[in-house]
Amino acid sequence: MRVVLAEDLFLLRDGLVRLLEAHDFEIAAAVESGPELARALAELTPDVAVVDVRLPPTHTDEGLQCALRARRERPGLPVLVLSQHVEQLYARELLADGTGGVGYLLKDRVFDAEQFVDAVRRVAAGGTAMDPQVIQQLLTRRAADDRPLARLTPRELEVLELMAQGRSNAAIADRLVVTERAIAKHTSNIFAKLGLEVSDDDNRRVLAVLAYLDHGR
Amino acid sequence: MNTNTKSGSPHTRARAVALAAGRGFVLALVILPGAVVCSTLSLVSISLIPIGVGLVTTPWVLTQVRAFADWRRVLAAEWGGVKIPSAYRPVPEDANPWTRTYVMLGDPATWRDLRWLQVDMTAGYLTALLPTVLLIYPLEGFAVAAGLWRPLSEYGGYWYGFVHVTDQASALGAGALAAVLLALVPLAPRLLAVHFRLTRAVLGASQGELAERVRVLTETRRDAVDTAAAELRRIERDLHDGAQARLVAMGMDLGTIEMLLDKDPAKARELLAQARRSSVEALAELRELVRGIHPPVLAERGLGDAVRALALRLPLATEVNVELDGRADAPVESAAYFAVSEVLTNAVKHSGADRIWVDLHHGEGMLRISVTDNGKGGAVIGAGSGLFGVERRLGTFDGVLAVSSPAGGPTMVTMEIPCALS
């Protein structure tokens, strides 16, 4: 799997290259600025891009903007955005086109190599990987002012949270140490309580959850 | 809010006229009771100083007068595009009643306020009402011409303006006068502007108060320096007690792990997990610290999106409306952001509201921010409240803050900071 990597800090870039190569990714390019990233995305047609939000030359949200532009030109281009901080605002912008294949993670998640690589693979496959912190913010917010979420049991909330991060039933079952059948039952309960259409497409499922959480803002 | 009425379609002009008339009417409604009550209370309170009661009431009353005047300053800027500088001497937060009274009465701005109240309840009232009258009075003229003159002139005639109405012919004269007045209606917005200019003439600081201005600047600069120093101390302490300590602990853990690696791999693995947790926590703390100094979204996207991001984290439904075509200087952006943040926190904690509206726009060299909630009202700027801190912070940038929060709500906090966008 070919990866384009954009990160301006040498140490982190180097670490990411080593980490991804160790997990059998091929690094097509590892760049350190917005313009270089734009060129690499256009010329190398990678399977997935791993991009830092803040990049030179502006040192603002150049990386994010670059990724969004590239996705407008090539819809569905898998992009995993890494950031020193996560903001719902950016998560929304990434999810806005509804084509999937996006991820938005705190840089700390790199510490857990397995989970991080799993997230890269999921995004490359067209799924989503949302940082638990984003989901947590959304859930607390919604819980404060919304009724349907109040109807969920604590366990169902837990499942919803993992689901919204972009995990499959199998992964959730693994995480919560229960059978996949139990999770399937929880998810159908959640969908019923939230009034969502059941769909077997993982990515649609997450987008539906996020759209629901987003609803009424 | 656009007050430019010289151009545009008849539709927008009619809107501008109606707006001016409506605003004038609202102003007139508030001015008369507001100015009379403020002025009476001030005079009574000041005259009670010799027997002591005035010492307690005067600072409070004068603060209300200032709030009233500040509110009118904001209205003048928003509705009439007339900037009225405000230059009150700051009163020390912990001053005793005597010092407070003394400082406030020694402030020429106080006496200007009191003078202004007299003008406001007379000439100010009339000029505010004029646009509305101009819109309604012609209607009466037409009604008179159409036949209303009969009952009205039964006892020796009726005066419509300067026309003495006694029969149909003179009634038609009244109708003609009404038509002339109606032709003047498009002037309504300009008449309202006259009111604001009058307010500025009386309420605005005069040339002779430049010295006072320098004093206020010195004061706010000292505030700014103090705040910056306190902020630096807080950052130093947070780093020292938080992230720094965690990194030290992590280093020690790593040292132990190195030693244990061959002897006790299980224990080493356990310590490794702990070290990783420490690193995650240190990062989280640093992140919080950075957010407190200069929020990342603010640096990346500017004030508009930073406030949007802030609203997303609030537990209340918050609508953010941004009309900024550029970015202000970083210190202004930062001050505005933290001011909004403080006001929003206040609203969430104390207002009991379930909706908040934030409006940011820039015009005529002013950044204007209003935060409105549908809560129970009753917010005050008094010493020690969060809003007081915001006011001081904005003061560094010559910004002003006005609060309108009648009991029962809604609360509207308006902030203005002079600045240019780039």
UniProtKB/TrEMBL annotation, chain A:
Keywords: DNA-binding, Phosphoprotein, Transcription, Transcription regulation. CDD domains: LuxR_C_like, REC_NarL-like. The keyword 4Fe-4S does not apply. The modification 4-aspartylphosphate is found at D52. InterPro entries: CheY-like_superfamily, NreC/VraR/RcsB-like_REC, Sig_transdc_resp-reg_C-effctor, Sig_transdc_resp-reg_receiver, Tscrpt_reg_LuxR_C, WalR-like. Gene3D superfamilies: 3.40.50.2300. Residues 145-216 form the HTH luxR-type domain. Coiled coil: none annotated. Residues 2-122 form the Response regulatory domain. It holds the Pfam family Response_reg. The keyword DNA-binding applies. This is Response regulator transcription factor. It comes from Streptomyces cynarae.
TrEMBL record, chain B:
Keywords: ATP-binding, Kinase, Membrane, Nucleotide-binding, Phosphoprotein, Transferase, Transmembrane, Transmembrane helix, Two-component regulatory system. SUPFAM superfamilies: ATPase domain of HSP90 chaperone/DNA topoisomerase II/histidine kinase. Its EC number is 2.7.13.3. It holds the Pfam family HisKA_3. InterPro entries: HATPase_C_sf (IPR036890), HATPase_dom (IPR003594), Put_sensor_dom (IPR025828), Sensor_HK_TwoCompSys (IPR050482), Sig_transdc_His_kin_sub3_dim/P (IPR011712). It catalyses: ATP + protein L-histidine = ADP + protein N-phospho-L-histidine. It comes from the Bacteria. Residues 331-421 form the Histidine kinase/HSP90-like ATPase domain. The chain crosses the membrane at residues 16-37, 43-63, 125-149, 169-188. This is histidine kinase. It comes from Streptomyces cynarae.
